[in-house]
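Lab notebook, bench 4. The sequencing result for the construct came back, and we need a structural model before the next group meeting so we can plan mutations. Quick request posted to the team channel:

Model the 3D structure of this chain.
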Amino acid sequence: MFQFRFETLLRVRKIREQAALQSFATSQKHHKELKDRQQQYINSKLALDARVEIDLNKGISSAEFRMIKEYGTFILEAIKNLEEDIHVASQDMENKRQAYVDAKTKYKAMGRLKEIDFMKYRQQENLDEMKFIDEVAVTRHKEERW
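Done. Here's the predicted structure in token form:
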């Protein structure tokens, strides 16, 4: 019966690969959420600019105009902060992607080692079987001669 001598290590590497994949997926999700939020702010800013243009043509009070401009400044600042957060999230995502690739490579290496060990086991098993058949044939031949 074949038993891989590093079976425990193989299972540990598989668990690490899965954990790295989960971490990478979480990082990707966070990055996407930040990008989506940034797009929402950009859309809000565009809508606000369109509203200001319409309101200026209709006539708007200076207090209301100032309030809209302050809100526009707030949106621009939020976009700028999100750009920094997105940059950090991108770096984190890349680091976690690399960790996942490394974990996957280590797991595949152990899997390949298991395949090689299994092939050696099968070869030895075949040799043992051939040896047994030869011994049976020699024994029968001796019995027939006597």
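DSSP finds two helices and no strands in the chain.
Will bring this to the meeting.
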